[in-house]
Amino acid sequence: MRPVVKFLSDELIERIIEEARDVLRKLGLEVHNDSVTSMLADHGARLNADRGRVLLTDEIIDKALAAAPKSFQLFDVLGRQTHDFSEYKVHFTPGSAAINVLDHEMERIRPPTSADYVQYAKLVSRLDHLASQSTAFIPADVHQNISDSYRLFLSLMCCEKPVVTGAFTIEAFEVMRDLQLAVRGTKEALKAKPLTVFSCCPTAPLKWSDVTSQNVIDCAKYFIPVEYISMPLSGFMAPITLVGTLVQHTAETLSGLVISQLANPGTPVLYGGSPAMFDIRYETTPMGAIETMVIDCAYNEIGKFLGLPTQAYIALSDAKQLDAQAGVESSMGATLAALSGINNISGPGMLDFESCISLEKLVLDNEICGMTLHMLKGIEPKEDFPALPHFEELLKEQHLLIAKHTRRYLKEETCYPGPVIDRANRARWAEEGSKTLRERAHAEVERLIAEHEPSKLPDDAKKEMTHRMEKEARRHGMDRLPACAL
């Protein structure tokens, strides 16, 4: 039996949804995109000119919920299925859009470079428990206007896994779309085998910017999956209570669903978010706070109640280095997220309030992901009944190390982590150098990157992507891309 954690009763979920719908009917949205506003009005939304808001109707919301797919799949650059976003199936992906990396040698954070990104992509390709890559951080050695498309370019060139990404501008989407078409060949092929998920973020409270709402529309035109990343901050930009925050999150997420499904019914979506309980003592948004994790797990229940696949930024830490806090927060988040059945769990590798990526933490988190995925198998009998013969053999042999039953189920029943997790006795640990977690993690980073094999994406697709990316770079005054990108 698969273990499941729940925080909300069905009655409470229904009340939260109804309150969110009431907010959308009576307070509505602030939309900073005229074409989106016009589309909503064409489908029956009311415009409150005095308050500058768009009021949704139950009919519009119901239409969007009916149109949204209940599940979808993702595929890698070679067209192999990697994800099934249905029911309680769980997938892990690194966190996204950090502005720093934690440098192991320098022992401090610094702006990342293209070389860092290439190493990251190579590493992710070797981490078995991360089903996808993300555009994890922003290289500082390219023009800021191409930083979003450039990250996707490097990901598709260096790693075969699908990508969780997003656009910072309306113009960047065109380039990012063309990069995906270079891989798939046609719009129809991209629709049949989605390669990316785009994060689209409303602004709290109840606001859609020009850029983000247009990204939702543009993704819908090509059936590119989107995950709605509502970010209410409990006690600051949302009610202090968990229920109040969930009402706001539900309203903001439903509004994104309406925009995408009215633009193109059937667009694949993830009911996602990145809320946080605001810590008034430090004026921070702790992603490792237990309240933040509970909000994530609870809105996942609401998404599943609505029949939608889900996403959350969880399994990450606010620690500033690879320490005990990083392990506690990341492992607790990963465990709760997996037990809750969040379909796309975003966060491994992240530190410092989603602002920093550590490659060493990424390999540690990969082990945490492996453990939680193993846990989800639950407990099932495997030739355990009748039990008497096993105990008769144990009494006779005084061990079961080489028993037929042991040999048959050893690997299936036991999760063996890699060398970053120390399970040696003290004598052996000392004999092998008394390495710290940080040292073991760095050694594993170096080993996995060294063992990286180039992507099998056809050369013509790589050439087309490179041509498109170089053209965009020149448009923003760059003579050439960094050498490591080519």
Structural topology:
Blueprint: H1 10-26, E1 30-31, H2 34-42, E2 46-48, E3 53-55, H3 58-67, E4 72-75, E5 81-85, E6 91-93, E7 100-103, E8 108-110, H4 114-124, E9 133-134, H5 147-158, E10 163-165, H6 170-184, H7 187-192, E11 196-200, E12 207-208, H8 210-221, E13 226-230, E14 233-234, H9 242-263, E15 269-273, E16 276-277, H10 290-305, E17 311-313, H11 324-340, E18 344-346, E19 350-351, E20 356-357, H12 359-375, H13 388-397, H14 404-413, H15 426-431, H16 437-450, H17 459-475
Parallel strand pairs: 1-12, 6-18, 7-20, 9-10, 10-11, 11-13, 13-15, 14-16, 17-18
Antiparallel strand pairs: 2-3, 4-5, 7-8, 19-20
Helix pairs in contact: 1-9, 3-9, 4-5, 5-6, 5-17, 6-17, 8-9, 9-10, 10-11, 11-12, 12-16
How would you portray this structure in words?
The protein is α/β, with parallel strands linked by helices and 486 residues long. It has a single domain (1-379, 417-486), classed as TIM Barrel (Alpha-Beta Barrel), CATH 3.20.20. The protein has helices spanning 10-26, 34-42, 58-67, 114-124, 147-158, 170-184, 187-192, 210-221, 242-263, 290-305, 324-340, 359-375, 388-397, 404-413, 426-431, 437-450, 459-475, and strands at residues 30-31, 46-48, 53-55, 72-75, 81-85, 91-93, 100-103, 108-110, 133-134, 163-165, 196-200, 207-208, 226-230, 233-234, 269-273, 276-277, 311-313, 344-346, 350-351, 356-357. It has a five-stranded parallel β-sheet. Strands 8-7-20-19 form a four-stranded mixed β-sheet. The protein has a three-stranded parallel β-sheet with strand order 6-18-17, covered by helices on one side. Helix 4 packs across helix 5 (147-158). The N and C termini lie far apart (48 Å). The model has no long low-confidence stretch (mean pLDDT 97).
